From TrEMBL:
It comes from Macrococcus equipercicus. One of its GO terms (biological process) is lipid A biosynthetic process. Residues 42-209 form the Calcineurin-like phosphoesterase domain. One of its GO terms (cellular component) is membrane. This is Metallophosphoesterase. SUPFAM superfamilies: Metallo-dependent phosphatases (SSF56300). One of its GO terms (molecular function) is UDP-2,3-diacylglucosamine hydrolase activity. Signal peptide: none annotated. InterPro entries: Calcineurin-like_PHP, Metallo-depent_PP-like, Metallophosphoesterase_sf.
């Protein structure tokens, strides 16, 4: 019955239903966060939750990478769940590496594990795809980049649900806690813990924005550690420190191959200096 209802809806293609790669929306936030008043705006493109292999194909990825590249990002950050189940993927996962290598971002492309990536039987395969793509794997690890004289610390932790993650280890290479710090964490609700560590921006996915959203009611089904912060931009406080959190609605789907009132999204976070605003 459910499959029949889905097929019927797909034929009707109502405006609130999204099931194709070209349904993707681009949303831009302009956020005054950088410290150096001389720095140019820093363009982050944030994507998440492609779930390749579950209603998401090689051709879908081509379309989305082309869209990402037209946005001219300084950096691209992918917060997990690249494949839905790489150990059950019928094709050759390594075929995606040359395609992922075509993402254009002068400050690099970064990836952190999601709960669909980080399992004992899958992690090595995902790691191989990422490394062959020239993408930086941020697994309880961080590094500093220089952007127009602004020291930006890029970090990411292991998936929280399966491997707990290690924020302290991810920040180990940060030489100054005042450096502008970005942390990639697949599960957004973990932000209530991350905000204690002088992190300025957390990027997350995991929720798919709810994927199925009902008018007035919102998302009736949400995953563990994705029930409080569901999609969009949030500001969290810890004592006198403010941390921004962005939760990506994601590009793919899982369990059901459709979205209701929740389009897939590529997000641009344009970070400006506080003085610029």
């Amino acid at each position: 019955m459910i499959e029949l209802a889905i097929r019927t809806l797909l034929k009707l293609k109502p405006r609130f239903l999204y099931a194709r790669a070209d349904d993707v929306k681009v949303k831009t936030y302009r956020i005054p966060l950088l410290h150096n008043q001389h720095a140019r705006p820093f363009r982050i493109v944030h994507i998440s939750d492609l779930h390749i292999g579950f209603n998401y194909t090689y051709e879908d990825l081509i379309e989305h990478i082309n869209k990402v590249n037209t946005l001219r990002p300084d950096i691209v950050m992918i917060t997990g769940d690249l494949f839905d189940r790489i150990d059950r993927y019928k094709g050759k996962p390594q075929a995606f590496s040359p395609l992922l290598r075509t993402i254009q971002a002068p400050s690099g492309v970064y990836f952190s594990y999601g709960n669909h990536d980080q399992r004992s039987s899958r992690t090595h395969k995902i790691q191989q795809v990422i490394e062959d793509s020239g993408i930086h794997l941020m697994n309880n690890f961080g590094r500093t980049i220089d952007y127009d004289g602004e020291a930006i610390y890029i970090s990411g932790i292991d998936d929280v649900l399966n491997s707990k993650g290690n924020v302290t280890q991810a920040l180990k290479n940060r030489t100054d806690s005042h450096d502008f710090t970005i942390m990639m964490v697949h599960e957004p609700d973990f932000a209530d813990y991350v905000k204690r560590f002088d992190v300025d921006l957390q990027l997350s996915g995991h929720t798919h924005g709810g994927q199925i959203r009902l008018p007035l009611l919102g998302a009736p089904i949400l995953p563990a550690l994705g029930k409080k912060y569901v999609r969009g931009l949030y500001q969290l406080m810890h004592h006198h420190h403010s941390m921004m959190l962005h939760v990506s609605p994601g590009l793919g789907t899982t369990h059901l191959p459709i979205r209701f009132f929740c389009p897939p999204e590529i997000t641009v976070l344009e970070l400006t200096t506080k003085e610029a605003e």
